[in-house]
Amino acid sequence: ADCLAAPAWTVPVPDVSTQARLSHESFHQSARMLRRQFGLTWDTARSIVQMCPGCQCLARIPQTGVDPQGEKALQIWQSDVTHIGEFGKEKYVHVSIDTFSRALWATAE
């Protein structure tokens, strides 16, 4: 009975590095996650992420200074607008933060 239930052929399983690369192509995990999930070295995990063309546009931009902070409330605000297509009609979110009090104001437009 075991012979009848056994597969007629076996598919070769790719090595761990290839599995990690294929997984990254689908899910775009970070190097840290690839290292944890597949047991890769830091160099191998980083090279997989660095070779991914989709991840290159998401690379971190190094910060060269300190964000300014106001000396009193309502003096310096930082703002950002992002597009969220799943929101439908109101698909832009505008967020502003007062750097002194950390007061947050967010609206969907």
From TrEMBL:
<keyword id="KW-0479">Metal-binding</keyword>
<dbReference type="Pfam" id="PF02022">
    <property type="entry name" value="Integrase_Zn"/>
</dbReference>
<keyword id="KW-0695">RNA-directed DNA polymerase</keyword>
<dbReference type="InterPro" id="IPR012337">
    <property type="entry name" value="RNaseH-like_sf"/>
</dbReference>
<keyword id="KW-0808">Transferase</keyword>
<keyword id="KW-0548">Nucleotidyltransferase</keyword>
<dbReference type="InterPro" id="IPR003308">
    <property type="entry name" value="Integrase_Zn-bd_dom_N"/>
</dbReference>
<dbReference type="GO" id="GO:0035613">
    <property type="term" value="F:RNA stem-loop binding"/>
</dbReference>
<keyword id="KW-0255">Endonuclease</keyword>
<dbReference type="InterPro" id="IPR036397">
    <property type="entry name" value="RNaseH_sf"/>
</dbReference>
<dbReference type="GO" id="GO:0008270">
    <property type="term" value="F:zinc ion binding"/>
</dbReference>
<protein>
    <recommendedName>
        <fullName>RNA-directed DNA polymerase</fullName>
        <ecNumber>2.7.7.49</ecNumber>
    </recommendedName>
</protein>
<dbReference type="GO" id="GO:0004519">
    <property type="term" value="F:endonuclease activity"/>
</dbReference>
<keyword id="KW-0862">Zinc</keyword>
<keyword id="KW-0378">Hydrolase</keyword>
<keyword id="KW-0863">Zinc-finger</keyword>
<feature type="domain" description="Integrase catalytic">
    <location>
        <begin position="64"/>
        <end position="109"/>
    </location>
</feature>
<dbReference type="GO" id="GO:0016787">
    <property type="term" value="F:hydrolase activity"/>
</dbReference>
<dbReference type="InterPro" id="IPR017856">
    <property type="entry name" value="Integrase-like_N"/>
</dbReference>
<dbReference type="GO" id="GO:0015074">
    <property type="term" value="P:DNA integration"/>
</dbReference>
<keyword id="KW-0540">Nuclease</keyword>
<dbReference type="GO" id="GO:0003964">
    <property type="term" value="F:RNA-directed DNA polymerase activity"/>
</dbReference>
<feature type="domain" description="Integrase-type">
    <location>
        <begin position="15"/>
        <end position="56"/>
    </location>
</feature>
<dbReference type="InterPro" id="IPR001584">
    <property type="entry name" value="Integrase_cat-core"/>
</dbReference>
